[in-house]
Records
---
Amino acid sequence: MTPRSRVSPYSPGSLDSDAKAERTAREFGELMARAINATVSPAPVKFLQTDRDDFEGFVAHVDGKTPAPMQLGNGHYLFVYHRLGLRRPERYLTTLEYAYWYQAQTPEDSWIVRYEYQREPVAPYRYPRCHVHVNAVPMTYQGEKPFPDLHLPAGSRVTLESVLRHLIEEHGVPPLSPNWEEILSATEAAFVKIQNKRVLAPLDSN
Amino acid sequence: MATVEDQAPTERVTRHELCAALDSLAQERLGMSAAEFMAALKAGELDPYDPTVARLAILARLVR
């Protein structure tokens, strides 16, 4: 048998069995873990499969079996949660939701910035599915809705790698690996390849 | 080189376990059970922008 690298080539396409879906989701989790562990935190990150009839699970650092924030080298915390499931008749592994919260301490109310995406929000939902919340209020802001509640549009996706780069370059998180940029470029390229295979425009373009 | 095949099986979590975790967190943070939290969330009785509600809602979507 040809040895399989720990760095997944990740080009799964249609997944016609739960075993393939499970392996692919685990590899997806390994990619996320590799990106995080090379940059901002050595905390374990893994895929956990739930017991739903339709395949589903999530990638996160966990406390017990529930997602939990990871401490960073600058003393702050990062909560990373990425829910995966199968969609379309072809059974593509699909991102159903993600949440990347940069927070000052472990309690969630210490959040600073939240990057969030929901593929299938409950109607009525009139906001960008991919958005960012900022826990601040510009002095010039006079809107009725509290500024931290605004769903600031963030394009089609905010990649985990872009958040990790941002934390290192602008928040003073010391990178864990000397070749972290190279590793992030590799994992980001793998994720882009996945997304390009699964573009469902226009329904998935919000 | 380590291989995917060498690795431990995928870890699993049941909705019962997740519901128990949600129940514990909802009791601790909001003084309500998991069932009460999910009902209140569905009825729009909770502030979805509250960070604790938003974080617990993540678990609720896994439990549903």
Note: The helical segments of chain A are 18-37, 160-171, 180-197.
---
Amino acid sequence: MSRTGKIEVALFAVGFAMAGLVLFALLWSGAGAYADMARAAGAESTTFIDHTNGERVVMGLGPLVQEHRVWSTYVTGGTADPPEPGRFYTTDEISHMTDVRGVFDGAKLLIPAGFFVMAIRLQRARAHSAEEMFRLVRDGAVTAGVVVAALGLIAALTFEQAFLLFHEVFFPQGNFLFDPATSNLVRLYPDWYWQGITFRIGLSFMAVAAVVAVAASVGLRRARSTRLATE
Amino acid sequence: MKRVLLIEDLPQVAQHLQSMLSREKEIEVAGVQSQAEAAIAQVATEKPDVVMIDSLLQGKVTAVDIAKRIRTASPGTRIIMVTVPQKPLDAKDEAAVDAVFVLPGGANELAEVLGVGRAARPQNGLMIAVYSPKGGTGKTTLAVNLAVVLRRQGKSVALMDGVMQFGAVRHAMQIPPATRSFVDLPTAGAMKTSLAEVLWEGPSGVHVLLAPAKPEEVDLIQGGDIGAAMGMLAETHDYVIVDTPSRLTEDALAILDSANVILMVVTYMNATVANSRSAIDTFEALGYKGRKPILLVVNQSDTPGGMSKQAVEHALNLPIIAEIPTDWKTVSDSLNKQQPFVLGSPQAPVSRAVEALAHGLVTQQRK
């Protein structure tokens, strides 16, 4: 593959990964996914601290899912007003979630940007030949899948460092560290949630990348057969 | 047994609420609906006692809109909104919402919003005689609307038309002409078994015991039967509201003797105040003083006619617990349409005033 070809594949892979990862992050942010992850982790209830009186409150799966729905709806842009501080959450926690919403707002722009990058690359390859186009799709999907798999493996092996790095990159203001002994946000989103959602986003992205790569391979074979038959 | 319909789109939350409701002996879950239209259709046909709606429902129709449509489809159904602490709701802000349950919530909080269990009536219900010694004070209208408001607050309520001759309750609500009345009740011990068959339940959910339709039938009714009927109604209802005749006849005295509370309706008119003073003197002579509260309610309170609240309180030596403003249009529309104004115009100041009165009575009963 020429140097230009490698650059085209890399650009396609970047566009594919941008659009795909953000789409899956939105898809897996729902209440059903949270409930599945909680069940898989055997965490169908937890204890919250009532900040108004310091008492412990048992939260079953239903209330936990409802709490998650409030947050996920807010950070993904479903509602304009942030949840109110008080019984369960502090102003610092709400401020952090407002920043998370800002990150999501930015990330949502990556979806059309990713599709735009892919569309430009596809158009250029198609102008050359149908085989070139299918090859670009196949190689781009495989590259994106392999890179995401590698990142996922690194994240799995060094989860705490990766989690910290992710937050330091996206929340440079540093308002993401809370005391697990008192923070209900940490109790709502413990390690099993981050590991579960990372695993789901990565696995579903790789599955889609594999399907796209296989489909492009089939398309490539057919395009090659058609060209040979006409020659 | 109260039937509760859940409107919830998250299965885990529905399961949590069902689990909590299953621990309440007086509750039966009528179903769980995740779609607004299906839920409203079920409410319209089955008219459950209580509907619990998740305020965070996602979809084209908001939870508050669903509540408003349910209120229209089944005015007697108590509507409870379910929320979380960081999304607070105030039932007073939404006319269609009767109470708010905040997750995770406890059994006591749930029982309180449902009006069952330990939070419910521990003994016989409160019998309130709505009385005025002068006609035209709005006593019947107040009795009807008060009963509906209390029912909407989740209480079981019986409304009895104690004006056995020319009773007006049957004209204040859309009651079919053939509906049975007090005169269809057997006397003495057999009364209890037939009482439920004679009660009429309208869309507001209030159980109504009508006065006879024909004036001559009043001769068939004994004062003792009236008191007995009130007592039996109090065994099965949180509140028994009785529209009481103005004249202190045998049937009126039977009602006043049985009642736990006398709600005296007055206006800022000299004749009303003077008659009320005479009635209170009679009550004292009958030994009511210290035995049952006599509470004053001023109707048409914004037409003082030169009288002040303090002057009336001083003249009658009783505190005024509520003032109901004048709203001829709302009230006359309500009477002509035979729909209580607290249902037809829930936001009107007159409706709000009746709600405040009901709240005051509930608080007083708790004390």
Note: Residues 191-230 of chain A form the longest helix (40 residues).
